[in-house]
Design goal:
Layout: E1 16-18, E2 21-23, H1 26-34, H2 38-42, H3 49-56, E3 69-74, E4 81-89, E5 92-101, H4 104-117, H5 122-126, H6 130-136, H7 145-162
Antiparallel strand pairs: 1-2, 3-4, 4-5
Helix pairs in contact: 3-4, 4-7, 6-7
């Protein structure tokens, strides 16, 4: 097991802003330090490096102006909210943006969703499921399965408004 050295947390001037909020530069180092051992110690699921990358560096964040379709869905059980904007032209998704207020997994699922459907035909994008998102992020812990469902619900709702 790696040796944990005590370190003082950086002050606000050393925190790095990203589109999901503020991150501590030690976060990746600390999570990496225990990633191989954490599930053995606690039996808990550890987020994959793919999921953490989408959380820390979310892609396609924002909102598209009209004529894009913008929808907002929520999960009443956990309180997560996802907004999804789609711009479709000639049967293709030309641009996609998202905003999420929610957990690590919800932000990551929104980010991956936009990467997977951008530039695809509407028919291809309609085939995407929560299971595809989970697999694309290296798996979701059971308690975070709602995040993939939230992203899929946002996509289905957007398609209802496109037609």
């Amino acid at each position: 097991m790696p040796v944990l050295r005590y370190a003082s947390m950086p002050g606000p001037s050393k925190l790095k802003p990203n589109t999901a909020g503020w991150t501590n530069p030690l976060f990746s180092e600390i999570t990496g330090l225990f990633s191989d051992y954490w599930s053995e110690i606690t039996g808990d699921f550890v987020y994959s490096s793919l999921l953490l990358d989408h959380f820390q560096n979310p892609r396609n964040v924002g909102e598209l102006p009209p004529p894009a379709v913008t929808v907002e869905v929520s999960n009443p059980a956990c309180g997560d909210i996802m907004q999804l904007s789609l711009l479709a032209e000639q049967g293709q998704l030309r641009d996609v943006r998202f905003k999420t207020r929610g957990c690590v997994a919800s932000i990551a699922c929104g980010s991956l969703l936009t990467e997977l459907i951008k530039g695809k035909s509407l028919e291809e994008a309609k085939k995407l499921s929560a299971a595809d998102l989970s697999a694309g992020l290296g798996g979701l812990p059971p308690a975070s399965g709602h995040a993939g469902v939230l992203a899929e619900d946002a996509l289905r709702e957007a398609f209802r408004h496109l037609q």
